[in-house]
Amino acid sequence: MHRPENVGQPVTGLDLNLNGVCCSPWRLAAEELIFLNGLKRQYTILIALEDNMYAPAGVKVSKEFPILDTMKAWVLGNPGELTLKDKPVPVPKRAEVLVRIDAAAICATDLEVIYQGPPGMIEGELPFNKNFTPGHEYMGTVVALGPGVDEYRIGQRVAVEIHAGCGQCKRCREGMYTSCHNYGLNYGDVDKGHRANGFTTDGAFCEYQVNNINTLVAIPDDMSDEEGALVVTAGTAMYALTELGGLVAGESVVVSGAGPIGLMVVAVAKALGAQPVILTEMRDNRLKIARELGADAVVNIRKVPDVVAAVKELNGGKGVDCVVECSAASKAVNDAVHMVNRGGKVCLAAFAHEPVMVDVAHIVTNNIYVYGIRGEGRSAVHRVEAFMRQKRFDATKIHTHTFALSDLPTAIRYAKDRIDDAIKVVVKPRMNAAHKAAAE
Question: Has residue 60 been placed in a domain?
Answer without folding.
Answer: no
